[in-house]
Amino acid sequence: MSFLTDWITNWLHDLLVNGIMGNLGNLFTNVNNQVGEVATNVGMTPGTFNPGVFALIKQISETVVLPIAGLLLTFVMTWELIQLIIERNNLHEIDTWIFFKWIFKTAIAVLLLSNTFNIVTGIFEVAQSAIQQAAGIISGSTGVTSGMMATLQAQLQAMDIGPLLGLWMQSFLVQIIVLALNIVVFVIVYGRMIEIYILTSLAPLPMATLTSRELGSMGQNYLKSLLAVAFQGLLLLVCVAIYAILVQSIVTSGDPFGAIWATIGYTVLLCFTMFKTGTVAKSIFAAH
Q1: Helices (DSSP H) in the chain: which residue ranges?
Q2: 252 or 65: which carries more pLDDT confidence?
Q3: Which of 38, 46, 165, 209 is the most exposed place for a label (fewest CB within 10 A)?
């Protein structure tokens, strides 16, 4: 009878150990995949992320917004010419060089306006290059290896059935939390790209004011906002990389119970920091 009891106990023990390792293995695999997916998604330019949406945004910008921007540019440069003339002692002193200055500024303004999409695309290509280089470094240093998992499994083998049962229930809870994390990451990453498309659709309007002394802050702040949302992708990647490294330390800590709750805490912290990346990026580039 004792032989049967021992067999059932060992069978249940191994079943719980395998279940916990399966749950935690899925968690750590998900973390590794999450780093790769975030690196891929945030490293895309608006044109490569979804060519169909980008083509639609470009068409709207060129056919609807650009004519309005042309009218705005006409007003801005006319006002600029008036200001250049009257600021010279109320028309009593006029130098011909101010007209050459105005023609030069107008030519620059027209050039910027006609190449708005090239400028916007160039900003995101620079950001994409930086993100891809960072992703190559991060992907090689955040993976949870089989050796780390073997150390954790050895710790589990030494535990009794009671603690293993509680640990299995906790590891199952972590699976649900990680699923919620995937949803949060999806919302943040795709929400950022939708914000990029919205900014891109109205790009000609602020670009039309860029050379103006009085209204130029509008165009400057737009470029700052564009840089902020472009490099927000790098901050998102850094957040996920920090999370992955913290999870590595959990695996090698030798404390299975602590590993479960530390993972939950780090997951909540990751969600919080990812939501803050937009604010941090705007503060870095002084965009408001």
Answers
A1: 2-42, 46-49, 51-60, 66-86, 97-114, 116-139, 146-157, 161-201, 204-207, 216-251, 256-284
A2: 65
A3: 165
DSSP 64: I
Residue 230 one-letter amino acid: A
Query: What are the tens digits of pLDDT across the range 202-242?
Result: 889 998 888 887 788 888 899 999 999 989 888 888 888 78
Q: Is 95 left (phi over 0), alpha (psi -120 to 50) or beta?
A: beta
Determine the Cα–Cα distance for residues 93 and 88; give it in Å rounded to an integer: 5
Threshold 0.90, pTM exceeds? no
Rounded Cα–Cα distance for residues 203 and 206 (Å):
6
Domain limits of the chain? 2-65+116-284
List the one residue out of 213, 35, 50 whose CA is nearest residue 141: 35
4, burial (CB in 10 Å: exposed 0-12, middle 13-18, buried 19+): exposed
